Amino acid sequence: MHEPVRRPVVVVAEDDPIAMRVVAAELEAAGYQAVTCSNGITALEYVAFGERLDALVTDVHMPGSVDGLFLATEARSMRPRLPVVYLSGRAIEARHMVPGSCFLEKPYEVGRLAVLMRAVTRGGVVSLIAGTRSPRPETD
To answer: In what residue span(s) does the Response regulatory domain sit (predicted)?
Structure first.
């Protein structure tokens, strides 16, 4: 008897319900198990207490005390090797992103997130920027 194939678990933190469903559907179609969280607090709880977690996909701008930037920073403090992909319709400054993370600008082409996730969950080298626009350079 064969063991079932373990699907990588990806937490999706997105406050927009339609965007969350679209992201989760793309990940599920690509073979991932998407754990959807409608806010940063719920996502942070899963990161802290969930047994399996292979990556975090987070919207940058979410209401409340835990936005995507804070979520990613806290998630990395608990799970230092956790791949992080930021999603946003607005550019963010690279200095606010956790090291080794990726940024995908919304809206993005269907399939682009799945390609990016395959690279980051398999330990591949990924460009910092997966979207069409770069994060703003650091300013002094």
So the answer is: 9-121
